[in-house]
Amino acid sequence: MLAQNNGLLVDPHDQKGIADALLKLLADKNLWDLEDLSLKFSVDGDFKLNGELDAATRQKELIEALTHMASSNGNSSVSYHSGRRKELFVRAADCYDSNGDCTERLPAIIKNVMKSTSSGLGRIGFVLLTGLILQEILEKLRCCQVNLQEIDALVCNSGSEIYYPWRDLIADLEYEAHVEYRWPGENVRSVVTRFARGEGGAEDDIVEYAGVCSTRIDDFRQRMRMRGFRCSLVYMHATSRLNVVPLFASRAQALRYLSVGWGIDLSKMVVFVGEKGDTDYEDLLVGLHKTIILRGLVEYGSEKLLRHEDSVKREDMIPQESPNIALVEEGYEALDISADLLTLGIK
């Protein structure tokens, strides 16, 4: 641990180091920089006979100061939903045609899922979980005339970025710092570009979010690890685009981050997906959250480039009779979704 002014520098992945740092901050009053922390304690406040602040008074002032800090911190994502949202509806289905272009079903399912939450207004939050970049999903939201203020969080670029439209459209820097831990982005980008050219692609055909469309994820990941790079690889847009994101970034990880930050249990989250999806699709089918699979919603996915025939099968990764997974046959209109939620006992 390194001390710097009134702060302590610790490894964010070292739980013991974090615990020791917290104890040291509480024990050493020399580290309490009251002015920097906006802890405006009055010298003439309530004191005990021995000159110390009354415990109840100290607790009250500390809570008020921390609340003020949280509300004034532009990067904080905790204060908005603490104690307000009890459940989250998560739309995680990206709909593409055979060319990898988004179809009209994408804005339709966004609007329908939001309509299905109308009965729980204020209690149920809404999150978009997508492989698209921010500009692409904003364009789709404009098409379906959805008010951005009604969306609690936008998880973009295969789980590597989180935005809060009710506040601003600036990425959550705390989440970004977490997922980019030891992430050599520029080096990875150059290596992926060389791999793409090696598969027969022309240099002009390769941009930041595009790459080879024939190498399976398992092979690509192995080749990257042989060169010392650990990252997450996600095919999307019906295998026409390859996302290379930090190892700790994923759509499932983003859900866990929101669960901890907002104090919403994962079992109170409902994730809407199609029968197909990007190569990270299977990660959304397992866990404590409830998953609703909307049959016929997604026509073209990228799962064919996920693994080899002799690799681990999908049925080995996903429980066949999970009580948290429901398959919807009828459709994906708002009334259909509401009826299915009632059947599952969710609403």
TrEMBL record:
Domain Sucrose phosphatase-like: 123-293
Annotated keywords: Glycosyltransferase, Transferase
Superkingdom field: Eukaryota
UniProt GO molecular function: glycosyltransferase activity
Ranges in a coiled coil: none
Transmembrane segments: none
PANTHER family the UniProt entry points to: SUCROSE-PHOSPHATE SYNTHASE 3-RELATED, SUCROSE-PHOSPHATE SYNTHASE 4
Name of the protein in its database record: Sucrose phosphatase-like domain-containing protein
Taxonomic lineage of the native organism: Eukaryota, Viridiplantae, Streptophyta, Embryophyta, Tracheophyta
